[in-house]
Amino acid sequence: MANVKDLIGLEFQPYSLAVEKGKIKELALAIGDDNPIYYDLEAAKKEGYDNIPAPPTFLQVIDLWGGLGSVEKVEKLGFKLTRVLHGQQAYEFFGDIVAGDVLSVTSKLVEAEIKPGSTGAMDIVVTENQYRNQRDELVAISRNTLIHRH
User: Fold this and answer.
1) In this structure, how many other beta carbons lie within 10 angstroms of the beta carbon of residue 91?
2) What is the biggest distance separating any 2 CA atoms in the chain, rounded to whole angstroms?
3) Which of 25, 43, 106, 137 has its CA at 20 to 30 Å from residue 59's CA atom?
4) Which of 93-102, 113-122, 124-133 is the least confident region?
5) CB neighbours (10 Å) of residue 7?
6) Contact predicate 48/126, CB 8 Å
7) Which of 142, 132, 28 is nearest to 86 (CA)?
8) Burial annotation 15-54 (CB, 10 A radius, 16+ → b, else e)
């Protein structure tokens, strides 16, 4: 790879995935969240949701099952998987994501830089995913920072 900054604007293949009630429950159980809105429709409706809502980190489920796997994404960036670290994840929400929604995701690399490190240079890249529901409403954006040691 010549320069990591040349990757800015790189787009990944779009994908879509349905938000399933069972997957919401699995994630809530896995993270130890016992809030009844993630398990019980009546509790969710009592809190103002149309259906069982997805926990904030549920977008990782959408990306895991709908998008490129980690290996494929790292290869597309030209990085060596054994030299990649997950640096940061940030979410911004614009609407509810609930069971029954179908999210369509576009993803692109929006930032890239090279920084010196104690063991050599590091590429730091940020990808941004935009999540739209079946009504084409932007419901969330995630930003994922990857660090690639040279």
Assistant:
1) 15
2) 55
3) 43
4) 113-122
5) 21
6) no
7) 142
8) bebebbbebbeebbeeeeeeeebbbeeeebeeeebebbbb
Summarised one tens digit per residue, pLDDT across range 14-66 is 999 999 999 999 999 999 999 999 999 999 999 999 999 999 999 999 988 88
The pTM score is 0.91
Structure token pair of residue 35 = 């809030």
Gap between the Cα atoms of 24 and 15, Å rounded? 19
Residue at token pair 């993630």: 38
Query: Residue 145's beta-bridge partner residues?
Result: 88, 126
CA atoms within 13 A on the CB side of 52: 20
